[in-house]
Amino acid sequence: MKWFVLLSRIVVGGLFVVAGSIKLRSPQEFANAIKAFKVFPAETGDHLIMMSTFTMPWVELIAGVLLIIGWRARDAALVISGMLAMFILAVISVIARKLEVDCGCFGKLELFCDGPIGACGIIRNLVMLAMALAVLVRGAGPWSVDSLLGRGIVDTRPAGT
Amino acid sequence: MATSSGNNLASALGGSLIIVAISVMVGGAYSWAFQSGDHPVRLRIDSAGNQGVVLGARGGDEPIDNAPRVLGYEISTEDAYALWNEGIVFFLDARSLEEYEQGHIAYSRYLDYEHLYDVPFPPIVNELYEDPSQPIVFYCSGGECDASHNAATYFQGLGFTTVHVYMDGYPGWVEAGYETEAGPDPLMEQP
User: Fold this and answer.
1) How many cross-chain Cβ pairs, A to B, lie less than 8 Å apart?
2) Which residues of A touch B117 (CB under 8 A)?
3) Which residues does chain A have with pLDDT short of 70?
4) Which helix (H) or strand (E) holds B20?
5) H helices within A26-72, ranges in order?
6) Which residues of chain B have a CB within 8 Å of the CB of A32?
């Protein structure tokens, strides 16, 4: 299990760092992608889109780096799990409204899923969510700053065993 | 055990809020830096509809129609030539620099499509941003080339209100026998 946690940290953290970097490099493209999702109300939508465009990539980048190096890994895993849950809901909403939009998750890169957003996007996010939850439950695992500080693995055994 | 798990979760929740708060502060500072400086570039999220050029109404040398009409998003060689002939429309070449320098529609500018999404934007974007109602025609190699469509959509997102895609692109222009030229973009900044 501890090696799965390590793998999860590197894969999910790495993907979030890549996604955040791409969005920071192309903020206009990301703003267009958010707008295409049509999830914000018309009255305040533009402000929320602008705020999301500039903050979400930094959340992805910082949480991703923390997850990779395993420093405050459970905190970072919780942030990433929350974002992934939000992304999954957004994708379901897009599919339910029959909108044909591109994900914008990784800019021009189409990692694992190509074309307009669909079920593949949900599956990809669910896999990442499962991996992030593994870190949240089990802790950072080996090769992490947390393990150097003595909080690498969370003891989930029942008391007295 | 339940208390321990609760403490762990509460600790993670507190830590995660700190991560989000720090990210928001960094994002705010980044936003400020992004939108200030010598060449401020502001995101455009109010995607205006395409107004279209009224063809034939400006009295070009060779109007192709007697009655003025509004051009759509995608235009033919015939319409592209009519716009080019009016002389008030920007033609932007979305192909590679090498292809542009080998030959391009006369008086058209090099778009630098490869760096279009970079920050800061390529100089030509800031240059055109002076007048977002400026009519622009994008072209590339015709056929399956999608750079002109991508660039046009991107410019619409930036707030440009009159953009067109010349569907047949440079090969269609050459085939029609219209004026071309070769060499570098005369107004492009040299490295």
Assistant:
1) 97
2) 25-26, 28-29, 107-108
3) 28, 42-45, 107-108, 152-161
4) helix B2-34
5) 27-37, 45-69
6) 45, 47, 154, 157
Strand pairing class (B90-93; B109-110): parallel
- CA pair distance A23, B34, nearest whole angstrom: 13
Strand partners for A17: none
- Would you call A32 and B34 a contact, using CB atoms and an 8 Å cutoff? no
Would you call B19 and A49 a contact, using CB atoms and an 8 Å cutoff?
no
CB spacing of B117 vs A28 below 8 angstroms: yes
| ipTM score for this prediction | 0.83
Strand B180-181 relative to strand B104-105, pairing:
antiparallel
Architecture of the domain whose range is B74-181: 3-Layer(aba) Sandwich (3.40)
Chain B interface test: which of A35, A53, A79 (most B C-beta within 10 Å): A79
For residue B188, pLDDT beyond 80: no
Query: What residues does each domain of chain B span?
Result: 1-36, 38-70, 74-181
Per-residue model confidence (pLDDT) at position A26: 75
Which residues in chain B have their CB less than 8 angstroms from residue A80's CB?
A: none
* pLDDT tens digit sequence for A125-134: 999 999 999 9
Pick B47's closest partner by Cβ from A35, A58, A66.
A35
Supply the pLDDT for residue A34: 83
Strands (E) located in chain B: 54-55, 69-70, 74-75, 90-93, 104-105, 109-110, 136-139, 163-166, 180-181
